[in-house]
Amino acid sequence: MIIYGIELKADQDDDIIIFISSKPSKEIIEGIKDVINENHEDENWTYDGIRHSIREFLKNHNIKIIEDPYKPISFDMDSFN
Q1: d(CA 28, CA 19)
Q2: Which of 64, 80, 79 is nearest to 2 (CA)?
Q3: Apex CA 63: angle with CA 52 and CA 16, to 5°?
Q4: Partners of 18 in the beta sheet?
Q5: Which of 1, 42, 54, 56 has the smallest number of CB atoms closer than 10 Å to its CB?
Q6: Which residues share a beta bridge with 34?
Q7: Helical spans, DSSP H, in 1-81
Q8: Is the pTM of this model over 0.85?
Q9: What is the crossing angle of helices 47-60 and 26-40, to 10°?
């Protein structure tokens, strides 16, 4: 499975990265920009609010969001003895 990451750079360390299972179309990218602009119109906006709005937008457009693309691999060290 190919995983695509949408990374939105922020002024601080609050970059927003959302992983999805399909390459976003130009329409989706423009829609995300619109979502960000709408959120910025609210003077009480937060990065979490923007992240939530983007995720809702993607879900409404049937784009699968991958919750954790970096699932850690765990194993029992004792099994190697």
Answers
A1: 14
A2: 64
A3: 35
A4: 6
A5: 1
A6: none
A7: 26-40, 47-60
A8: no
A9: 140
Nearest Cα neighbor of 36 from 65, 56, 62 is 56
Q: What share of the chain is helix, strand, coil (3-state, %, to 5)?
A: 40, 15, 45
Residue 18 parent element (H or E):
strand 16-20
Distance between CA 29 and CA 23 in Å, rounded?
10
- List the structure tokens of 74: 């765990």
List the end-to-end C-alpha distance of the chain, in Å, as a whole number.
Answer: 34
Q: What is the CA radius of gyration of the chain?
A: 16
pLDDT in tens, 2-37: 667 777 776 666 667 788 878 888 898 899 889 988
